[in-house]
Each structure stands twice: as C-alpha cells, then as structure tokens.
TrEMBL record:
Protein name, UniProt field: Leucine-rich repeat-containing protein 6
A biological process term (GO) from this entry: flagellated sperm motility
UniProt keywords, alphabetically: Cell projection, Cilium, Coiled coil, Cytoplasm, Leucine-rich repeat, Repeat
Any one Pfam family match given in the protein's UniProt record, by short name: LRR_9
Main location (coarse class): other
Organism: Equus caballus (Horse)
U2A'/phosphoprotein 32 family A C-terminal domain segment(s): 128-146
Transmembrane intervals: none
Length: 472
C-alpha cells in the first residue's frame, strides 16, 4: 500500500518541471493508493486527474478543485458518489467498475451543472432494473451516459416514469445493502480466522534450531554447525519452501471468492506477500563474493587489476624515478580515486575496486606524487627511488656553475675597460646630415632656335632615296 505523499505527486509531475502548485494534469494510476489526501491543497489548478486502478474506497479531498474538468476513478473500491459538489467545472466523471450500490447517491451531482458525461458501467447499480432511466431523469444536465448519447425522447419518457422507477430503485438498493452487510461480516470473520491461524503457527512448538540424537540429547555444537552449514541441507530447505509457496499460491487463486472491496484488498496483500517472499529467497541465493586477496599470508604483495584498466610502468633512469600511468576513466570523479604508495608496491582504489602493482625497485612513498591529466583523465604517479634524487630538470653540475661565474667576471672586466674605436678622418668622412639634400638653383633657360641640320652626301649615314621628294 502506498501513501499519498507530496513526493509521489512530484515524481509524476515531470512534464511541469516537478512544480505541483501550477499543475493542471496529473496521472496517478496503478499506484496502490487507498486514500486521497491533501490534493485539494497542493494542486488547486488541476483540470485533469487520473486515479484509475487504485484501491480508493471513498471520494474525498477534491471538493476545492474548482477548475477540475475530468476525474477518472475507474477500477477502485468506491461504494458511494459523494463530495463532488465543489467541483464546479466538472464535465466528465468516470466511475467504471467500482462497487457503487447506492444509485440514489448520484443526486449529489445535480449541483455540477456542467457535467455532460458519466460512466457507471461495471457497478452493482448498473444491474438494477430502470437504472438508465433513473440516471437520465435525475441528472438532466447529462448528454452522455456510459458512452451512449441521451436522446430527448428518452429523457421525456424517463421523467414521466420517474416516480415508479424511483420506488423500484429504492427496493433494489435495500436488498443490495443487506447483501453487502453480510459480505462484510463474512470478510471480517475470514480475516480474523487468518490472523488467528497465523498466531497459532508462530506459537506452535517446533524446531528450536538444534539437532538431537536417538536418545534425546542434542548433538555437539561442532557437529550441529557443520550440519547446518552444509550446502545440501540449505538447498533442500530452500526447495521445500519454494514448493510449499507454489502450492499455497495455486490454492489461493483456485479458491472461489466474491467480487468485493475486501477481496481486492486480500488479493493485493497476497501478491505483496508473494513478492516479499520471492525477494527474500533471491537474497538468500545471492552469494557474497569473498574479499580479493591483495597480500598473501607471508606478506607478499600480489598484482591485481580488478577495475580492468590499461596501464604502463616506466623506469625513468634520467630522473631516478618510477612512473605509473593508469588509464582511469576520463569522466570519473577524482574523489572516487584513492592512491596508496608503499615502498615495494602501489595500490589504487577506483570506485572501491583495487588496482595493485608490485614495483621493480624500492621507492620513497613520502616523496611520491600523483597527478591526473585534464585531457585524457589518466592518473600519473611518480615515485622516486630510494637513495636517488629525483629532479624535475637536468641536474646542475659544479663545472657548469664555474663556467657561469667565469663568464660573469669577464663581462664585468669588459664593462670596466671600455674600448674605443678611432676613425681616420682622411679615410672616412662623416656625412653632413643637414646638407644631405642640396637645393639646386634653377636659372631661367632661354629657348634658342636650333639650326636645321640638312643631310649631305658627305654624311656616312646619308642615303639618297629617289622616291623621297626633296626637302624644302
């Protein structure tokens, strides 16, 4: 049985970003709800509410839902129509397959003036003589009843025969109420018998957890524990219990029962009991994995790779260290990684799964470092060797230092004795910057008539062409 809680509503309000105060549509079908609570306070703006296939026995706490237009309460344990007067906007009500026997209780729906569709099929009242005529005459605002449209002639005829039909309905209701009272007494008596039988089985003396010999003395504890812990006995006990449960289940489903709210609750309890027994049996079958051995009894460390990660181990002779590159998952949170460096081995826990590797040489745990790549996510562990110095850069030796000092001394001497270059002015002349560009004085030119040169025969370039006329 599931209680009607705010968390239940929020989980079914994902389409509204889990906000419930502005929720307009809510579906809570098949949730094993027995009672409606607080919904008229938490979801005032509801327009559509699905509550079919639950165990609701009474319509309550919905009268303040003024905007509610469609209410589906099919397949529940409702026995009476009530507490819907405040749903002013209700236009469709589905009460299919319930236990409504008081057909006269639908008179409370007269205040719902906007109600157009009503479903009552599958209820005991739907088997009454004159059921449809009574509903059509009582709720004159209805347009559809059980999926069938109400004709005008049908309503006129129902109103004409209403006094007679009403008397018939009252008599049938009275007979149904007497029968229902007997069914309730029978269900209560049966429930009490089942409870007494369960108490009797628990109080009945039986196996006290010890095995006895033929003379009546209990076996020694060592023999008893060995017998009890034998896998054959445990397996036989589980199989026997499983067969008994199957027989009980078959007997329950083959036993005839009435269709009442109590029988529905009994069926649900039986199914829940079977489910818990199945879960308990499956938990017993689950074998707890033994803890993985990381270090043997004689203190020898083992190589273990339970998370199944790729890795590489390098011996850096240049920097005198051992480097382990572990291919940790790229998007794994670093808080789920635990590194433990020991002198002879290194252990990394990745989400609780151990990775252990024996090192080829002894290292210094205190000087070791672990870093993680931001691009690949790999874990890089640098472990300096014992009696060796780890360096992040090439070692600076003394000769290098001496050469640096000597070069600095030479520079200081050069700065003290400044050498000057002498230039012979006769060989080299410095340009006059001021007179680099010399201004030329432009003198006016006189245009002189150039004498005309007449070619003569004495000119070597002269060529007498008879076709060319003489120059005048």
């Amino acid at each position: 049985m599931r209680p009607f809680t705010e968390d239940l509503i929020r989980r079914n309000a994902e389409h509204n970003d889990c906000v419930i105060f502005s929720l307009e549509e809510l579906s809570l079908h098949q949730q094993e709800i027995e009672r409606l609570e607080h919904i008229d306070k938490w979801c005032r703006d509801l327009k559509i509410l699905y509550l079919q296939n639950n165990l609701i026995g009474k319509i309550e706490n919905v009268s303040k839902l003024k905007k509610l237009e469609y209410l589906n309460l099919a397949l529940n344990n409702i026995e009476k129509v009530e507490n819907l007067e405040g749903c002013e906007g209700l236009t469709k009500l589905d009460l299919t397959i319930n236990f409504i026997g008081e057909l006269s209780s639908i008179k409370t729906l007269r205040h719902n003036i906007h109600l157009k569709e009503l479903f009552l099929m599958g209820n005991p009242c739907a088997d009454f003589d004159g059921y449809r005529q009574f509903v059509v005459a009582t709720l004159q605002q209805l347009k559809w009843l059980d999926g069938k449209e109400i004709e005008r002639s049908e309503r006129i005829q129902a109103l004409q025969n209403f006094p007679v039909i009403e008397q018939q309905i009252r008599e049938q209701e009275k007979a149904y109420c007497l029968k229902r009272a007997k069914d309730k007494e029978e269900a209560q008596r049966k429930l009490q018998e089942d409870a007494d039988e369960g108490k009797k089985e628990r109080s009945q003396p039986g196996f006290d957890g010890r095995w006895y010999t033929d003379i009546g003395a209990p076996l020694p504890s060592s023999v008893e524990s060995k017998d009890l812990q034998a896998p054959e006995i445990q397996e036989g006990e589980c199989n026997r219990k499983k067969v008994e449960d199957e027989e009980d289940d078959l007997e329950f489903w083959n036993k005839p029962s009435l269709f009442t709210p109590e029988s529905r609750l009994e069926t649900l309890r039986h199914m829940e009991k079977q489910r818990k027994a199945q879960e308990k049996l499956s938990d017993k079958k689950k074998k707890v994995k033994p803890a993985r051995t990381l270090i043997t009894e004689d203190g020898k460390a083992l190589n273990v790779n339970e998370p199944k990660l790729d890795f590489s181990l390098k011996d850096d002779e240049k920097r005198k260290q051992i480097v382990l590159d572990l291919a940790v998952y790229r998007y794994l949170d670093t808080s789920l990684i635990d590194v433990d460096v020991r002198p002879t081995y290194v252990r990394v826990l990745v989400k609780g799964k151990p990775f252990q590797l024996v090192l080829p040489a002894e290292v210094k745990p205190d000087s070791s470092s672990a870093k993680r790549s931001q691009t690949t996510g790999h874990l890089v562990i640098c472990m300096p060797k014992v009696d060796e110095v780890i360096t992040g850069c090439p070692p600076a030796s003394k000769p290098v230092a001496s050469t640096l000092d000597s070069s600095r001394e030479r520079k200081t001497e050069r700065s003290r004795h400044t050498e000057k270059l002498e230039v012979d002015p006769s060989k080299r002349s410095f340009p006059d910057v001021a007179n680099i560009v010399q201004e030329k004085k432009h003198t006016p030119r006189r245009v002189r008539s150039e004498p005309k040169i007449t070619p003569t025969e004495e000119d070597p370039d002269f060529e007498d062409n008879p076709e060319v006329p003489p120059l005048i």
